[in-house]
């Protein structure tokens, strides 16, 4: 009888131990279930490894980079009210979008061009004008980056050129955001050509700004230009109308057959009639007076007019 009681006690002990094990397993199972439910309710929860990847900037595929968005935002803040547009430098379309800003510098140059609400090119700025380097840059035999220029409305006229605001020789491209219909003589031999030559000869310029004016909101043919830039430490302001300078000079009586006295006046080595240039008779000749008398700038130290003019930087040139 005692032996049977021992078996009964042993059996009860075993049953009790098995029951405890089942309870622990059930508790573990319930804990895992709770974890899974929490994870499902918080899908944004990341592992430490996932968080580390995000911190170093390796965004999951298909998501945009915050760095890229920041860069775009910075540009928009720099040019409020304008959309930033990328246009191929050789695009021949004459159409311009309104209220946009476009980089018209070739290669690594940064030259910004602005249009108004009518799609007219009204302003171009550059911190630094970098002269073309045909030894390292891909240029044609004529010194151009592209074989043709944008067909802005107006350039089809025989007397108008596809005029660059910033020339190829100064690193400008040939799309519509750098081209205006410009009088051919002005572009090739007038103030525009002279300005470009001055910058080339100086090896570049800084603080460049071009302001382009139009007679009305419909045309793409400017009425005048104003260029402001710094050359060898000197601030230069060139303002001129979009007209044939030869015709203007002729109407002012500044062209035609020159007699021997006039030829002496324009000679670099022979002194001419100062009174014909010094209109106010003060013994000093200004750049404006010299230009009005038909002299081209700069006036160099070997020119007879030089001693009557003011050379502020003493570099042997006036009006450079």
Automatic annotation (TrEMBL):
Gene3D superfamilies: Extracellular Endonuclease, subunit A (3.40.570.10). Residues 40-69, 257-281 are annotated as: Disordered. Residues 56-69 have a biased composition (Acidic residues). It comes from the Bacteria. Residues 1-26 form the signal peptide. GO terms for molecular function: endonuclease activity. Residues 43-52 have a biased composition (Basic and acidic residues). Keywords: Endonuclease, Hydrolase, Nuclease, Signal. Residues 158-229 form the Type VII secretion system protein EssD-like domain. InterPro entries: DNA/RNA_non-sp_Endonuclease_sf (IPR044929), Endonuclea_NS_2 (IPR044927). This is DNA/RNA non-specific endonuclease. The lineage of its organism: Bacteria, Bacillati, Bacillota, Bacilli, Bacillales.
């Amino acid at each position: 009888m005692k032996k049977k009681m021992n078996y009964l006690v042993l059996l009860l002990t075993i049953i009790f131990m098995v029951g405890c094990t089942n309870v622990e397993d059930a508790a573990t199972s319930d804990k895992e279930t709770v974890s899974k439910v929490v994870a499902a309710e918080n899908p944004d929860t990341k592992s430490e490894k996932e968080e580390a990847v995000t911190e170093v900037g390796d965004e999951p595929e298909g998501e945009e980079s915050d760095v890229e968005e920041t860069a775009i935002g910075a540009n928009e803040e720099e040019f409020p009210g304008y959309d930033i547009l990328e246009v191929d430098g050789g695009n021949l379309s004459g159409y311009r979008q309104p209220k946009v800003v476009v980089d018209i510098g070739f290669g690594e140059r940064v030259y910004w061009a602005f249009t108004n609400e009518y799609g007219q090119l009204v302003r171009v700025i550059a911190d630094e004008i970098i002269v073309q380097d045909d030894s390292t840059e891909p240029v044609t035999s004529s010194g151009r980056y592209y074989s043709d220029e944008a067909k802005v409305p107006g350039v089809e006229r025989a007397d108008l050129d596809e005029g660059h605001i910033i020339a190829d020789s100064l690193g400008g491209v040939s799309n519509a955001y750098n081209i205006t219909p410009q009088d051919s003589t002005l572009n090739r031999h007038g103030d525009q050509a002279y300005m470009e030559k001055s910058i080339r000869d100086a090896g570049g310029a800084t603080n460049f700004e071009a302001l382009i004016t139009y007679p009305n909101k419909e045309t793409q043919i400017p009425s005048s230009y104003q260029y402001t830039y710094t050359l060898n430490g000197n601030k230069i302001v060139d303002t001129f109308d979009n007209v044939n300078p030869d015709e203007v000079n002729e109407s002012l009586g500044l062209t035609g057959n020159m007699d021997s006295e006039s030829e002496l006046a324009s000679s670099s080595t022979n002194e001419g009639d100062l009174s014909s240039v010094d209109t106010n008779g003060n013994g000093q000749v200004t750049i404006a007076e010299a230009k009005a008398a038909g002299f081209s700038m700069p006036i160099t130290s070997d020119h007879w007019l030089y001693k009557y003019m003011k050379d502020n930087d003493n570099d042997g040139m006036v009006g450079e």
